Amino acid sequence: MNDSSAARPATPVLDIWCELQCPDCRTALDDLRALRARYGDRLELRLRHFPLDKHKHAFAAAQAAEEAAEQGRAWAYVEAVLGRVEELDGGGERFLVEVARELGLDAEEFDTALIDGRHILIVDADQAEGKAIGVTGTPTYVIGGERLDGGRSQEGLRERVEEIADRLLAEQEA
Fold first, then answer.
1. Neighbours of 156 (CB within 10 A)
2. What is the pTM of this model?
3. What pLDDT, in 10s, does the model give residues 136-169?
């Protein structure tokens, strides 16, 4: 028997390849907030990790973001860290744990997670997938099979993401 409700497409996904020590990703925060406000739960925004070698705390920050997700506060944590990129530059892991404490998260668990490396595989997998699809810098967006590189310029990117999201949502409703 063919269940027509099972054939409905899933919620469109916007993968955001991001690095928490990246000033361009901080600039992209306003666009991400606007997209979340416009689409709510009709568009899934999914943070994907792409730490760059040139930023020495980016890999630890990606692991910390995964711990924040585990504790239910991924976006709040990501926004807090990106909003203070300069402090991450100077404070490293100590700063990452402090942000967790400020947000009321279990800071001791953050510290332990950074030591035991429990989230390394997730970060490595994201980075490998990003490289496989041609991500070279951050932020990079992937939606509806299209890759949009925000590392060169944020100009017009949100509008392009909205065009694709609107098209995907219209196709979903048709």
1. 9
2. 0.87
3. 999 999 999 999 987 666 778 888 999 999 999 9
